[in-house]
Amino acid sequence: MIYTCTLNPAIDYIINLKTLETNKLNRIEQSLFRAGGKGINVSIVLNNLGIESVALGFLGGFSGSFIRQDLKNYPLIQNDFVDIEGTTRINIKLNHGFKETDLNEKGPIVSDQDFQIMIDKIKKLTPDDLLICSGSMCAGQDDAYLNIAKACDEKQIKFIMDIPGKELLDFIRFKPFLIKPNLEELEAYFDVKIGSMDELVEYGKKLIELGAQNVLISMGSKGSLFISNQKIYRASLIHGHAINTTGAGDSMIAGFVSAYVENQDLKNAYLSAVSAGSATVFEEGLAQQETLKSYQKKIKIKEIHL
Fold it and tell me: Taking Cα atoms as reference points, which of 142, 123, 141, 143 lies closest to residue 131?
C-alpha cells in the first residue's frame, strides 16, 4: 500500500481575479475550496491515476472536517488522520492575470501525544509499503521528519521525502528512496550558487553520496533533472501558458510513484513524473490519467553522460 503523510494540511481557497488592485475593492470572478497540503495533493493525483493510497496527517476544527468530507469524493483514498485540538489552516491562492500570489497560514500546534499516535501508525507499515511525506513541518514538532525517517529506517519502510528547508540534510542518512528538491533548495542545502548543468549534476550527486537513492530536481520553467546511482536523465521542455502551478510538484511525485510501482523502471517513472507535473501546470486542475498520457507523447527523456 502507498501512504501519504501531510503534517500540516490545509484547505486551499483558490481565487481567480482579472487583476489585483491594492487598497481597492476587488471582485472575485471564480473561487473554489478544496482539500490541500502537499501529501493530500499526492493522494488526489494518485486517485486520478487509478492508484489507491492511505492519507495520514493531522486534522482539527471545522476546516479539518471539510477536508475529511472533501476526500470522500476520491474513492481510492482512505483517510487515517489523527484528530487534534487546533484548527487546520486555510491557505489562499490568488490567481490574478498571469500572476500567482499565495497566502499561507502557519498551522496548528501538534502535541507530543498526537505526534506519537502518528509515529505508531507509521510503525505499522511493512517493507512492502511506501510512505510519501510532503510539505511543511507541523508546529510544535521541530524534529518531525527526522523522527519519521528514523521510524522508517527501524522498520525498513521505503519512504519518499518532498519537504522545504534544510531539514533534508538531517535525515538523508536514512536513505530516502526519492527526494525532490528544487534548484533554490539545492543551493540552500549546500550554501552555493549553481550556474551550470555540470554544477547542478555535481550537487545532485552529492545528495546521492549523502544517502538519497534517487534525486528529482525541479527547475521551474527550465524543466527538471533526475539522478540515480547509475543514471542521469533530463526531460525535454514543454512550452505553453501555465494555468496553475499549485500541486505541480506533488503531481510529479504521484506520477513517479504510479509508474514505478508497475515495473520499477526509473526512466519510465521519471517520464511519468514530468508528464503529470505538466498536466497540472498546463491544464485545469490536478493531473488526470488522460492528460498525463497526452503529455507523455510530447516529452522525450535523454540520458546525460558527464
Answer: 123
Supply the CATH classification number for the domain 1-176.
3.40.1190.20
Residue 33 amino acid letter: F
Catalytic residue among 12, 114, 162, 250: 250
Name the DSSP letter for residue 18: S
Q: Is 52 helix (H, G, I), strand (E, B) or coil?
A: coil
Query: What cell numbers appear for 156 in the block?
Result: 525498513
Q: Provide the H-helix boundaries in the chain.
A: 38-48, 61-70, 112-122, 144-155, 168-171, 183-190, 197-210, 248-263, 266-282, 289-296
Q: Output the CA–CA distances (angstroms, integers) from residue 93 to 10, 96, 227, 284, in the order listed.
A: 12, 10, 32, 15
User: pLDDT at position 100, please?
Assistant: 83
Q: Is 250 a residue of the active site?
A: yes
Topology agreement, domain 1-176 and domain 179-306: yes
Rounded distance, CA 108 to CA 71, Å? 20
pLDDT in tens, 32-91: 899 999 999 999 999 999 999 999 999 999 999 999 999 999 999 999 999 999 999 999
HSE of 210, CA atoms in CB hemisphere, 13 A: 17
CB 127 within 8 A of CB 158: yes
Q: Could you tell me which of 87, 44, 39 has the C-alpha nearest to residue 66? A: 87
**CATH entry 3.40.30.10 includes domain 179-306:** no
Burial degree of 267 (CB within 10 A; 0-12, 13-18, 19+) = middle
Domain regions of the chain by residue span: 1-176, 179-306
The predicted structure's pLDDT at residue 85: 94
Rounded Cα distance between 186 and 193, Å, is 9
